[in-house]
Amino acid sequence: MSSTLVDPPDTTGPSGETKPADSPIEIHRHSSAHLLAAAVTELFPDAQCGIGPPTEDGFFYDFLVSRPFTPEDLVAIEKKMAHIVKQNRPIEKKLIPKAEALELFKGKGQTLKCQLIEEKSGDPVQCYTMGQFIDFCLGPHLASTGQIKAFKLKEGASQSYWKGKEGNPEMQRIYGYAFFTREELDQHLHRLEEAKRRDHRKLGRELDLFSVSDETGAGLILWHPKGGFIRKQIEDFWRDEHLKGGYDLVYSPHIAKIDLWHTSGHTQYYKANMYSPIEIEGVEYQLKPMNCPFHITIYRSRLRSYRELPFRYAELGTVYRFERSGVLHGLLRVRGFTQDDAHIFCRPDQLDAEILRVLDFVTMLLRAFGFDRYDICVSTKPVNASGSDEEWDVATAALKKALEVRGLAYVIDPGEGVFYGPKIDIKIKDSLDRAWQCSTIQVDFHNPNRFGLEYIGEDGKAHQPVMLHRALLGSLERFFGVLIEHYGGAFPLWLAPVQVVVVPVSEAQLDYATKVADKLRGAGIRVHLDDRGERMNYKIREAQSQKVPYMFVVGKLEAADAAVNRVSVRHRHAGDLGSGTTLDDWIRKISRLAAERAVSEGEEPMETAQAPKPSVPPPVPGGVS
Ligand SMILES: [Zn+2]
Ligand SMILES: [Zn+2]
């Protein structure tokens, strides 16, 4: 898999590109890209420069070289860059007649630059110098290299293609991070480290939570017992809250006749996301990409009266959507996933209240998992959409109004609605301040129309209900991935598959340890008795690496307690908590925290790295809705 098949940023990249860098940090980062190119061409005189735009957290530059850069090369390049910064070379604009510029770059062996000048430049050609180094560029840049204060090259160059096209010459891309200050850079690097440490694919393996197997297929998740337990906890909570919230739980099959998907418009508007139909006795069936048509069919199964509305049908419905194998990513981009879906059928006069109700519900639900900061956007009519502009306007206004009533700030995401209606998307902020698309609330006038949905109004006549689609966690797979990274695998007590590990110091305490474990189990606490003949420290280390909240250690002293009420306690973050608290008190505390769904045990500063604000890496786009 070539991970660097990125289109060149045709509209954003200076250095031979068409649009100048604009914000101060972009100018800073782009100037750093020139610095990199200067260092590379001075160390590798044969290197040809491609393009070098700023990125979200730094810059990159593509080079055509006779051999890939080695790690040692990168160290030398970084050193050279630091040297050029020290020299404080001026970065100067030069306007050079086109013919002369072409000669100049040709003379330096920079044929790719000549190509860019031919394609993009007028006459004269705008260039910038940094000592001997010259680049074709619209700028702007910093005045001199001495103003570049904080940069670092990313380990390992990657492969790219000239102009991002496979088949074109293979280039070596060097990425760098660049910030205004050393402190910002260090914070960013720390956060990247932390993100790596929390990677849900890595933790999924280490904590034995889930896997993806070549034998079963890419993008299809296998939930292991511990991951499965956490899912069960999430599902139980979800179902209970939905019943309390006035929803009905429904179930629907994984396939349906293709005609159903013609009626819903999926075969017309959503084909690219669907798998090929399956033929059964001469009839085509479609693997479901969404649950909506099933819930609609349930609604249509009998006559509905205005007095009964709204109907709120909820389902943990597993759907299948096509994703290219290259974009699949752990739990975050998958081909089969379970949406925490619901469809609300209401009267037009109930729409505003129903949207508010969903908004309140989603914030309550997310809070239980420790998420209380959001980025919210309202997505408007896409190009390939069904329905009139007027219908879209009414629906979009209803969504905006609900957010305003609740005082929730939002931005507009133009053209990003679903084919059947506009939506509110809620991105949750995790402990590293990254935003993840999870919740969505969508208004739909299209499906009630296509399916001819009705209810009998007060006037005895048939009327059309409005439909709301909503998923709160989004998909269980994706949400689990976010949850793993948010907590770094150290799940709160109510989700933790094992809440307490009991560790006897030696075999002599095994009997007492068993009684402690029984007592915990009897109180409904999830306990594991580590009765292996390993050394105590080894067992504690292992429980620690498995992120078990509490370790109850019993040695000679504890085992002497006839009442079985004495344990020595360690907490996964706080370390040794001593033996001053009785087992009964611990049981009460753990039971209470789990019942309250507390997001931390209060023994610790939560395991979060307080993140600096600027330049958040982009969330992996997720296809949920
Ligand atoms: Zn430039
Ligand atoms: Zn739906």
Description:
The chain is of the alpha+beta class. Helix content is 34%, strand content 23%. The protein has an eight-stranded mixed sheet with strand order 11-15-16-23-20-19-17-18. Strand 7 and strand 8 (170-179) form a beta hairpin. Helix 1 packs across helix 2. The radius of gyration is 30 Å and the shape is globular. The model is unreliable at 1-18 and 606-625 (pLDDT under 50). Bound molecules: zinc ion (ZN) (2 copies). One zinc ion binds at residues 14-15, 30, 34, 128, 135, 137, 139, 141.
Q: Which ligands occur here?
A: zinc ion
* Percentage of residues in DSSP E strands: 15-25%
Q: How confident overall, as mean pLDDT?
A: 91
Note the gap between the termini.
28 Å
**Number of separate strands:** 28
Overall outline: globular
Query: Which strands sit side by side, in order, in the main sheet?
Result: 11-15-16-23-20-19-17-18
- Percent of residues in helices: 25-40%
Q: Which residues form runs of ≥5 with pLDDT under 50?
A: 1-18, 606-625
Sheet of most strands: 8 strands, mixed
Structural class: alpha+beta
As an assembly, this protein is: single chain
Cα gyration radius (Å)? 30 Å
Number of helices: 18
Compact description:
It is built from 18 helices and 28 strands. Strand 13 and strand 14 (about 285) form a beta hairpin. One zinc ion binds next to helix 1.
